Amino acid sequence: MLRPPVEPMLAQAAEAVPGPAAVRAGVAYEQKLDGHRALVFTPAGPGGTVLVQTRRGALVQDRWPDLVAAAEAQLPPGLALDGELVVWDTEAERLSFEALQRRAATRARGALALAVKWPAFFVAFDLLQHDGQELLTRPYAERRALLENLFTEHALTAPWTLCPMTTDLAKAREWLESWTDVSGVEGILIKPLNSRYLPGYRGWTKIRRRDTTETIVGAITGTPTRPQLLVLGRHDQDGRLRAVGRTVPLRPDAARQVAERLTAAAPGHPWTGAKFSATWGSRDVLDTTLVHPALVAEVSADRAIDHGGNFRHPLRFQRLRLDATVEDVPRFGAGPAAAAG
Predict the structure, then answer these.
(1) Which range, of 41-45, 84-88, 216-220, 271-275, averages the lowest pLDDT?
(2) CB-facing half-sphere around the CA of 228: CA atoms within 13 A
(3) Whose CA is closest to 262, among 230, 228, 225?
(4) What's the pLDDT score for residue 309?
(5) What's the rounded Cα separation, in Å, for the pair 297 and 318?
(6) Strand 36-41 versus strand 296-301 pairing type
(7) A Pfam family matched by this chain, by name (predicted)?
(8) Mean pLDDT (the chain, rounded)
């Protein structure tokens, strides 16, 4: 019988849907949600404890009391589910990654209060154990059929959600092109129908929706000669510069290129200081704050960057343009076409 910690099977990133050969071999496509990977274990018999395990093996059921209560009420014993934890913001009426992070870091009494404000949902995409029997060596297609039967036989309702899946390539492309405009859906996962569940093995393929877009480099951390990451901004409809996100820490080659642009464009660092009209996350102090209307970074992002607010997805630095003007940068509210490149 499976007991935590169980190392989950992983996915490797790819840039495109696999070709005809892979499709002929038989694959399934699942929607990839922007949440926290988790495994849920129900006890083998009465008196046991429902366990919730993170991707890294930590047990965090004390942070998800609503999920534990739902498992005790709805799920059969001897079960192990693999899936994605997401959180619904009842006020904003949308999935919220920020609320998910808050809940994941809150324990005990605080967790009960947050569960009311931000209820958790578990999007199940794999069944690792059923009625105490391990299923790791069974092919994905068989595990998926058992998972669907589980939802049907037990009439599972919220917070349990069955992850959408299709074997139709056209439907998968539609998901990638259209559903990724929906908050919380960041791409698709591709899984061979005959694959076993191999903990730690990167046998699945993950494709995220990415569009090219341009943003003003509004600030950096580090120094102009040794930048660490870029804080990105855009001008809103009133002409105010707003923070829309940040890059992941720059790789050495990207950091060198940024440093060359910064020092070449502004010897001696004569930048114009400015404050964003919207705060960036919880960090209120940057090592270097700067604004230069002609300094524009072209990055690879998803379309959430055109919605304003805090951009939480990693942005891949590609290049800097010093010949752009403020008018070249798409403004908020310009629509998806403004983010296409």
Answers:
(1) 271-275
(2) 7
(3) 225
(4) 39
(5) 8
(6) unpaired
(7) DNA_ligase_A_M
(8) 79
Are the C-beta atoms of residues 170 and 17 closer than 8 Å to each other? no
pLDDT score of 227: 82
Q: Which amino acid is at 84?
A: E
Q: Helix, strand, coil % (nearest 5) of the chain?
A: 25, 30, 40
Instruction: Kindly report, residue by residue over 283-302, the tens digit of the pLDDT.
Output: 444 555 566 656 777 666 54
Beta bridge partner(s), residue 161: 123
* Distance of alpha carbon 208 from alpha carbon 279, whole angstroms: 27
Question: Are 215 and 222 spatial neighbours (Cβ–Cβ below 8 Å)?
Answer: no
CA-to-CA distance for 31 and 170, rounded, in angstroms?
A: 14
127 CB neighbour count, 10 Å cutoff:
23
Q: What is the DSSP string of 178-196?
A: HGGGSTTEEEEEEEETT--
The whole model's pTM is what?
0.69
Give the DSSP H/E element, type plus range, for residue 255. Answer: helix 252-265
Tell me the one-letter amino acid at 75. L
Q: Which domains does the chain have, with CATH numbers?
A: 10-208 (3.30.470.30), 211-339 (2.40.50.140)
Q: Which amino acid is at 333?
A: G
Tokens encoding 114 = 């947050």
Q: Is 330:213 a contact under the CB 8 Å cutoff?
A: yes
| Two tokens, residue 121 | 């949902």
